[in-house]
């Protein structure tokens, strides 16, 4: 592994604990190495029986979703800080049917100098590894016919093939960096090239909860569940998770869900970067999952250390669904815009007010983040890396003009709202040898804002359909006024001028979104 680094195993940091730690680890791994394969085999045998219990077993095997997704730690929604360490990027193809799912995925993990002890004399370490996996899982509800209609019990076992090590994904990352004008990364792998660690992946998710019909909706439902997960990747890592999940469903398909829980993860290799990931991943987790017809986004974060990771996907499978849309009970918009010289990502959820035609309430988040001086990272490897992550959360009232004037092809709208903007400006110093903290916070806090927006909804509702969704384009401009920016400029006085570029009392934006109208 080369020279001694600041990464210490439990046995090195506390020799008196080593025997106990090894005993607990080996006992856990040994117990689950036997239990999980047996559980998986039993549930595979039960899989046909579960299909028989479905009202239409043939349709249970037909895929409903085919997702092509890209993940990055720059997808933050203002909740994570985008440390550009840990899980950095990835991609996946996910095929889902009511009774099964299959996934082909890859991920790149990067350590740009993090230490575990943060002693002044600890040496920073830079390393990386890749993973790729091919998995198959089952959605089983073997007790559904024996439980009350409000109960929801499911067991989802899965297994697959897992590769880890130097898979050459750094080339994909650097090609993407070239496209977005970011510097190349030349960090060495922890593992040798051409000799990946090949493992079997076994796991299961068990969910127990309740489902209720959504008032005033023909097919909408809400659910609240407690779910747990156990996973073993032989010779590589183990993970356990427990949490609660709140979901909104339409026609038994998830639309929006929120999760909170706790994750325990333990790496089995001697790679320093994987041992770092065990530290970063273990702890609390929060997140959400949104399926809005063609568009899908999944996000999870560890709020204790402000790390996070998001996946944005296109679901080609919805194009094969029989249209059932009648009206839009919920609009979900995703898109991109331009603000303060940088691109921003947007997510909006809109609900109409039934008693007032044309009036609706909108909740939105727009965020932008990343390095403020990417050119310096390669020229001055020992210099602090300046980063900013800003997000605006806004609640608005929107009014749309009657569609009859334009037959719905171009419908103008206007809205006004209030909210907050977060300022998270830091210097990353984890890669500097004598640093005793991962980041130096230049400024962090919230400021209130008022916001106005105007735009056009293009394409009539119902013209483009798939399943219970209809699609429109939304083109608009907006203006926010932020209160108290003078105090921020005073607080960062004397810092690099680059930080002041993200602090403005007036912020104008323009954007383009794809909106999915969901029939609940």
Indicate the structural class.
alpha+beta
Average pLDDT over all residues:
82
Order of helices and strands: HHHEEEEEHEEEEHEEEEEEHEEEEEHHE
Low-confidence stretches: 1-34, 51-55, 375-379
Please state the oligomeric state of the protein chains shown: single chain
Strand content: over 45%
Gross morphology: globular
Distance between the termini: 56 Å
Radius of gyration: 25 Å
Tell me the total number of β-strands. 21
Proportion in helices: 10-25%
Biggest sheet architecture = 12 strands, antiparallel, barrel
Query: Helical stretch count?
Result: 8
Strand order of the main beta sheet, please? 1-2-3-4-5-6-7-8-9-10-11-12
Summarize the topology.
Layout lengths: L9 H4 L1 H38 L4 H4 L4 E8 L13 E11 L3 E13 L13 E13 L12 E15 L4 H10 L17 E17 L6 E14 L3 E14 L2 E15 L4 H10 L1 E10 L2 E8 L4 E9 L14 E10 L2 E11 L6 E13 L3 H5 L5 E16 L9 E19 L10 E20 L6 E2 L2 E14 L2 H7 L5 H4 L5 E13 L2
Antiparallel strand pairs: 1-2, 1-12, 2-3, 3-4, 4-5, 5-6, 6-7, 7-8, 8-9, 9-10, 10-11, 11-12, 13-14, 13-21, 14-15, 15-16, 16-17, 17-18, 18-20, 19-20, 20-21
List its traits.
520 residues, alpha+beta, twelve-stranded antiparallel beta barrel, 8 helices, 21 strands, globular, disordered N terminus
Task: Describe the 3D structure.
It is a single chain. 16% of the residues lie in helices and 51% in strands. The chain contains 8 helices and 21 strands. It has helices spanning 10-13, 15-52, 57-60, 170-179, 272-281, 375-379, 485-491, 497-500, and strands at residues 65-72, 86-96, 100-112, 126-138, 151-165, 197-213, 220-233, 237-250, 253-267, 283-292, 295-302, 307-315, 330-339, 342-352, 359-371, 385-400, 410-428, 439-458, 465-466, 469-482, 506-518. It is globular and about 70 Å long.
């Amino acid at each position: 592994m080369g020279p001694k680094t600041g990464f210490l195993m439990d046995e090195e940091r506390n020799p008196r604990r080593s025997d106990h730690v090894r005993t607990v680890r080996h006992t856990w791994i040994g117990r689950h190495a036997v239990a999980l394969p047996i559980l998986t085999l039993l549930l595979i045998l039960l899989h046909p029986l579960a299909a028989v219990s479905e009202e239409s077993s043939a349709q249970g095997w037909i895929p409903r979703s085919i997702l092509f997704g890209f993940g990055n730690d720059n997808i933050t929604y203002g909740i994570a800080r985008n440390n550009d360490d840990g899980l950095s990027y990835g991609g996946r193809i996910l095929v889902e049917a009511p009774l099964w799912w299959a996934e082909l995925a890859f991920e790149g993990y990067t350590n740009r100098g993090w230490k575990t002890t943060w002693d002044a004399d600890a040496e920073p370490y830079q390393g990386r590894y890749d993973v790729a996996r091919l998995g198959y899982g089952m959605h089983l509800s073997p007790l559904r016919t024996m439980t009350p209609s409000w109960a929801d019990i499911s067991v989802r076992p899965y297994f697959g093939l897992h590769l880890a090590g130097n898979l050459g994904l750094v080339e994909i990352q650097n090609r993407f960096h070239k496209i977005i004008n970011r510097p190349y990364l030349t960090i060495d792998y922890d593992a040798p090239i051409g000799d990946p660690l090949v493992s079997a992946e076994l796991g299961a998710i068990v969910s127990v909860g309740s489902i209720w019909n959504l008032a005033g909706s023909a097919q909408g439902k809400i659910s609240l569940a407690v779910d747990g997960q156990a996973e073993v990747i032989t010779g590589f890592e183990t993970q356990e998770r427990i949490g609660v999940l709140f979901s909104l469903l339409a026609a038994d398909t998830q639309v929006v869900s929120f999760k909170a829980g706790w994750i325990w993860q333990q790496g089995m290799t001697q790679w320093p970067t994987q041992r770092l990931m065990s530290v970063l991943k273990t702890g609390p987790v929060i997140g959400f999952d949104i399926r809005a017809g063609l568009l899908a986004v999944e996000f999870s974060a560890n709020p204790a250390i402000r790390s996070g990771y998001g996946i944005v996907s296109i679901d080609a499978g919805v194009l094969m669904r029989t249209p059932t849309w009648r009206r839009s009970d919920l609009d979900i918009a995703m898109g991109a815009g331009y603000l303060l010289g940088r691109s921003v990502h947007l997510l909006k959820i809109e609900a109409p007010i039934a008693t007032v035609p044309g009036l609706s309430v909108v909740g939105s988040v727009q965020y932008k983040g990343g390095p403020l001086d990417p050119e310096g990272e390669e020229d001055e490897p020992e210099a602090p890396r300046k980063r900013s992550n800003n997000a605006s959360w806004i609640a608005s009232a929107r009014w749309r003009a009657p569609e009859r004037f334009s037959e719905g092809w171009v419908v103008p709208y206007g809205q006004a709202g209030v909210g907050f903007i977060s300022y998270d400006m830091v210097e990353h110093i984890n890669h500097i040898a004598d640093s005793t903290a991962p980041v130096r916070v230049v400024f962090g806090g919230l400021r209130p804002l008022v916001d106005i927006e105007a735009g056009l909804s293009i394409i009539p509702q119902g013209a483009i359909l798939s399943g219970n969704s209809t699609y429109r384009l939304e083109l608009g401009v907006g203006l926010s006024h932020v209160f108290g920016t003078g105090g921020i400029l005073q607080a960062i006085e004397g810092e690099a001028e680059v930080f002041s570029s993200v602090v403005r009392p007036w912020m104008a934006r323009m954007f383009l979104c794809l909106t999915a109208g969901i029939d609940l």
